[in-house]
Amino acid sequence: MQRREFILALGGAAAAWPLAARAQQLERMRHIGVLMASVADDPDYQARIAAFQQGLLQLGWSDGRNVHIDTRCGVRHG
Q: Among 6, 10, 45, 76, which has the highest number of CB atoms less than 10 A from its own CB?
């Protein structure tokens, strides 16, 4: 009886091991929301967003790879 339990446990571990290894390789996607009181075509807005993304990149965060940055403007034309 112990031999059968051992073989079943060994088979179960062998079947689950590739799934566990694959799950550990996936990196969690973080989300950042940026809301600025500006218009999208404002040069200052563009410069601030670029500086923000550059700072994140220096810290190891890349938009689309391990973080998603969603930007919105709080001011509309017209």
A: 45
